[in-house]
Amino acid sequence: MSIFADADTRVVVQGITGKEGQFHARQCVEYGTKVVAGVTPGKGGQKMDDIPVFNSVAGAVSEAGANCSLIFVPPPFAAVAIMEAADAGIDLIVTITEGIPVLDMMRVKHYLKTTSARLIGPNCPGIITPGQAKVGIMPGPIHKPGGPIGVVSRSGTLTYEVVYQLTLQDIGQTTCIGIGGDPVNGTNFIDCLAAFEADSDTRGVVMVGEIGGSAEEQAAEFIRLNMSKPVVGFIAGMTAPPGRRMGHAGAIISGGAGTAQGKVEALKAGGAHVCEDLGRIGELCAKVF
Amino acid sequence: MKIHEYQAKQLFSEYGVAIPKGGVAESADEAKAVAETLGGFPVAVKAQIHAGGRGKGGGVKIADDIAQVIKHADAIIGMNLVTPQTGPEGQPVKRVLLEKGLNIEKELYLSLTADRESAGILIMASEAGGMDIEEVAAQTPEKIIKVHVNPLAGIYPYHCRQAAFGLNLEKELIKPFSQMLTALYKLFVDRDCSLLEINPLVITQEKELYALDAKVSFDDNALYRQKEVVEMRDFDEEDPVDVEASKYNLNYINLDGTVGNMVNGAGLAMAVMDTIKLAGAEPANFLDVGGGATAEMIENGFRLILSDKKVRAILINIFGGILRCDVLAKGVVEAAKNTEINVPLVVRMEGTNVEEGRQILAESGLDLQTARDLKDAGEKVAALV
Predict the structure, then answer these.
(1) What is the distance between the alpha carbons of residues A13 and A98, in angstroms, rounded to a whole number?
(2) Which residues of A touch B251 (CB under 8 A)?
(3) Which residue in A35, A282, B49, B162 has the most C-beta neighbors within 10 A?
(4) Which residues in chain A touch residue B267, judged by CB atoms under 8 angstroms apart?
(5) What ipTM, to 2 d.p.?
């Protein structure tokens, strides 16, 4: 039906009384997401709208039955907030926070290996299973429930553009995931591709990458070896100059590695349908799917 | 964030990593005074700029006596140093580092980086020191030893030994090398470095290890907790436009084309640049106003784009999510009034409250074209330049 998030997802928002946390918690509720708790240390016992606030994630899990966390905690405290969620037994941790120090994320990444939690992000728009659960900051109405296409992307608004074009072509989505623009993140392209391949309702995947690192190249190899479902790929940054960081901490071409051209070629070699013109990705998807 | 060689060496010194005896000078007189304290010749006179390749541009000279120290310092301080990394415009030199020469027996390469693949710290070492390491890596990858350190566990003697034996160090050097590498690791972690590179790391005839060069850069996301590091920032080394943009919380990069563009979100901004190129024009910049752009940020973005005289048309592409299109349209109208936009403008908006946004633009009396979708936007703006 979907991957990672569905109608049974019960969300705790970490940082729910902050400006961002409050705004987006309400947006998620409005979309129909089950937001069962918030966490702000020291504000336990209060309520945000009708949502009970706890002092710790552990409290939100034991008393409100949360199984998914949405994190808006500021960068200095975000890495520890992720570990707190994992320790409390949360299955899915979605971290929106932008600007977490890379050494903190490295430690978190190794720490999470000792737990069963899945991390999405940081520095990402989150995850949405249209019509069931929106755990993130993406605009809900541009999505079309019911599938059959999965979307995975390193970027935020670029994902919205792609999803919107799909919806205009009357192509619905099973789940859309933004994995984030940081160099060290949790869930990667391959995790999502594998989950979409295994999901019976997903019939194809759109993968949106960008310059920097080698995640797209590794995904291309995975597609070649393991994907029976069609994949449409797009890579942003064909015109990006080397050595300059293009906004995202991870988006930099260094030492000739991580170029858009290299990624496009890798995806083609992996058997993906590569869209070179973002303005036409909807049309291409209509053709392929 | 980057720092100068002399600043990196001060950090090394704090952590007990040996550096050549030396000092910094901002004039030939100061250089003479520093050189006289070094107790002998030769003395290296090294331009202090952030960019690498200084030797190739004439920014590093060897002096055999005090007269040469004065001559070289005088020539280098104030020069516009052009290296392969500065670009053709070069970088003015404000100060030099003077260092006493060493009896070099062998030059090694050593670096620590924050490695995205392993989510750990990657130590790289090579016997092919002093050379362009990217070339060594490309042509003879077997000459580079890689050691991964798990940041949760930290560095242990076996990591150091793995690097030391890989470098074929003589037995007596293994212990001092391990101590040095452990100290560098501690520095890397304590100060939130993203790169720490010593090229060359030298072994002297007296069998001692010295960091002859030092390049250190830091994770921008961690600067909030690195006050001492932030104090080392040299704004003169940064592009003034970048400094201006960072003041307004904008991500701006100047490029060579003629189509200015403003987009919300880094990925979409890159994709819009690509769209402009596909439509047959060239982007003049990358500008990400972020997900939470305000009317003020839009106005500052306009100002940055218009400060680039190459710009002949501007494309605004906003996918309104949290940022509503009506709010954005008001920002554009306000900015247009306040900044005297003298080039044609193409606006494409989509998402939340798009109808209200379009109406505001239509009623504004501004000379602008609206685009249906991204493809249309690219074609319209390309037709204008």
Answers:
(1) 16
(2) 246-247
(3) A35
(4) 153-159, 181, 208, 210, 236, 247-248, 251
(5) 0.92
